Amino acid sequence: MKAQFPIFDICKLSRCEQEDIFISRLAPFLDKHQNLLLSHKHTFYHIVLFTEGAGSHDIDFQRFLVRPYQIYFMGPGQVHSWSFEGKVDGYVVNFSTQFFQSLLLKADYLDQFPFFNGNVAEAVIDLSTNLHPLILDLFEKLVHESETVQHLRQDMVRVLLVQLFIQMDRLSFERPVHQATAYNYTLLRNYQKLVEKNYTSLKLPREYAELLFITPGHLNALCHEVLGQSAGEVIRDRIMLEAKRLLTNLSLTISEVAYQLNFADNSYFTKFFKKHTGLTPEKFRDGLFNQLSQDALSLQ
User: Fold this and answer.
1) What pTM value is reported for the model?
2) Which of 30, 51, 131, 191 has the most crowded CB, counting CB atoms within 10 A?
3) pLDDT tens, 242-265?
4) 7 Cα distance to chain centroid
5) Which among 85, 91, 82 is positioned nearest to 35, based on CA atoms?
6) Which CATH number is associated with domain 7-175?
7) Which CATH number fits domain 180-298: 1.20.120.350, 3.40.30.10, 1.10.10.60, 2.60.40.10?
8) C-alpha distances in angstroms, 81 versus 19, 183, 265?
9) Keyword Transcription on this protein (predicted)?
């Protein structure tokens, strides 16, 4: 297998014109970066609003149909690819993990937004018709700021992005998944943050319940109520996602992937992976790169 999943940073995409922020209309961006149709990873935050187009896009091994006025959010490290049909346009915004640090004292400010929590189901949002003018106006202002040289331009871009995040966050609370009390939702988000930081070392719900000062039963009931899955499944899904991401890196052996995920041995990791996917890690990796090779040939 010679195919590799490329990893892009903002500098590669913008020729280092802007190292921390990149804003563009989507059509010219795609024309310039045809290679981004293939599976790849980002080292930065990535936002796209489609205003026209069809086809599909994959984020962390989940497929979504492209629709006008659909917006999606991605964080660093996620695996992504596109398969478009016909003309596609909209807006793209890429920004580094450091972009907001000079403006906001709260280092984890972005962590509060559900669309940046790594759960892909939260990150792809179809905008209701009444929101089209508001969100479109924000993106137009972002493009305008990126194309002009004005005093405090970068800070204006940051302010516009924060407005976008808050508007989308308010929308997320209108969804059924968030019809929980403010206390329960905050508790759930804290659990998800703990899992994100500790999934390789803490693999039992009771360990997280102890950190949250609640009982394992309370934690499990909360996850069932809001997410429709058990607390254990939240941990398992995060481990599985990272396993799939690591398997895209051909420089890592299966044993090294198992080690990074803190499995006792390669055999236990293989059994765990096959139980939840129906495939061995080797077969999963073969399938990924066979598809990547086919996609590459289709673009030639």
Assistant:
1) 0.81
2) 191
3) 999 999 888 889 999 999 999 988
4) 14
5) 82
6) 2.60.120.280
7) 1.10.10.60
8) 23, 36, 32
9) yes
